[in-house]
From TrEMBL:
Matching InterPro entries: HATPase_C_sf, HATPase_dom, Sensor_HK_TwoCompSys, Sig_transdc_His_kin_sub3_dim/P
One example GO MF annotation: ATP binding
Stated name of the protein: histidine kinase
Coiled-coil segments: none
Residue intervals of the Histidine kinase/HSP90-like ATPase domain: 296-382
Origin: domain of life: Bacteria
Species per Swiss-Prot/TrEMBL record: Geodermatophilus obscurus
Catalytic reaction equation(s): ATP + protein L-histidine = ADP + protein N-phospho-L-histidine
Record keywords: ATP-binding, Kinase, Membrane, Nucleotide-binding, Phosphoprotein, Transferase, Transmembrane, Transmembrane helix, Two-component regulatory system
Amino acid sequence: MATNALHALWAEPRPTNAPDRGPRDWALVAALVCWSLVEVVLRQAAWTSANLAPRPLLLLYVLAVLGPLLWRRTHPLVAVAVSFGTLTILDIVRILTGSQGALLSSMSAALILAYALFRWGSGREAASGLGVILLWLPITHVADHMSLSEAVAGYGFFLFAAALGAAIRYRTKIRIRDIDHAKAREREQLARELHDTVAHHVSGIAIQAQAGRAIAASQPERAIEALAVIEDAATRTLTELRAIVGVLRASQDTEFAPQPGVAEVEQLATDGQARPCVEVTLSGEFDDLSPAVGAAIYRLAQESITNARRHARHATQVTVAVTGDADRVRLTIDDDGSAAGGRAPAGYGLVGMRERASLLGGTFHAGPAAERGWRVEAVLPRTGTPR
């Protein structure tokens, strides 16, 4: 099992979602430069500057370590090769010339490059970069006249940084995979509901066609009415079929159970004996509402109430409000509890809810309320036009 996990971790190319250089990268380099300058000033003030290596050599070491940090996420192998390759050359020069003097402690920032190599690099890049680091380590130990214990500690620090990068990489991959699975489950559920709607419309078309055929000879005017009903149902069916294509339904068996709608949201209310108490308010117009939107409103309300019961500490009341106007439907759920650690905005339940709202062309937001508790708000178009 561990072998399969490692294969899944390193068998793919370097992640494409590695962020580009940003303000944080420049801030990190600037902070390390300031650290180096302060260290030099403090050592001069303490009359220990004679223990330092020559200043030109210190400058080269600082540039070799801090410069490549800007590219550690986008080009981790290049950053490691440039940095540790330069350090190897400088240490060889120190050995050959017999240059004495300690380096700055800010050079420990080289650990960041080892971390970045295993965090952002592909499997081949990590192996190649690790070889460059392991080649440099014994050379720098000789240049700095380190003892055996110091050499072992140096290897341990770099291996720990590499292991930390690999662990965070693996955890991020698992997180992304779970989010993708949550989105896929929501897409499949929405597709099933859309399928049920299409089946309902097609059944209505068949019944109306049979009725129109039976009365066409004796009551032509009623046959025309039947054709109008068929036309309207066919239009709705085409809309729902486009929605099915839009959500990219997986080829799985579809259930034909009737799907709940806005009217069923009232059934989520409680009698006040259980805690938290759930109050439901429906206002506005819900006629001609897309069945997919109605089912989505119900599912979002149901999931939000479930989350409140599980994660809202000391909650006594959950308020559900559904408002329908001319072109959209708004759902708002508020509770009066205190947020627990599990109510993170990136939870998989919230990911699925956000995906469902987005697929229907709506918006979704969940987070702490202004005063107390948690608020979930979704706005969906009445037609449920998919994006």
